[in-house]
Amino acid sequence: MKLIAALSGLLLSLPVLADSIIVNGTRFIYKGNEKELTVQLSNTATRPSLAQVWLDNGDSTVTPDQITTPFQINPPISRIDAHGGQVIRIKLSAGNSLPQDKESLWWINVLDIPGTSKADKAPEGMGIFKMAVRSRFKLIYRPKPLSGRVAAIEKLTLQTAGTALTLTNPTPFYITVATISLGRGDPLNAEAVMIAPGSSATINVRQAIRSGEELTLEEINDYGALAKRVTRAS
User: Which residues form a coiled coil (predicted)?
Assistant: First the structure.
């Protein structure tokens, strides 16, 4: 299926219908001991919408018909009535080859294609531009044997080299650090950084950090909330 592109250049002259589908989360954890993951979609508009849902493995430019994943989505396309809802079920296929010693990362795509109603009437001489809006959410598959996710941030190490900061994650979990601060000061990083299992990421910060200085990290946990940790750079 081809994606419907969102064309923003016409918005200055046309009334717009868009972005009515709300998703019940900002990230999703598929635990290996669960049979499926459910995602709740809600239509907040006064008109029906068509929702298309698919997964990708990080390349947002690939269209759904070119993507192969070990997951099944039901339903992949659904009509959601005004103020209605739809439960999307994501199930891991049997016989998949996903690693069992570390987490795997996927992305849930939700394309919101608004419909029209009798109330949608454009001024005389003008048309209505229907804009499809696409949103992406992290989907992390966590194998059943893994445990100790809450303590993972405690194992993250930081190494400084002036304004370069290297974060090393020796755990089997994805760790996302939202902010890095000196004590209680303002964040030194411009954006959140996600460190994959068993890997490192180097970022540039707004000021040099000396070895041994106290740093406050805010991690985004499984529920999308922030959890703080105080540590020191080496």
Answer: none
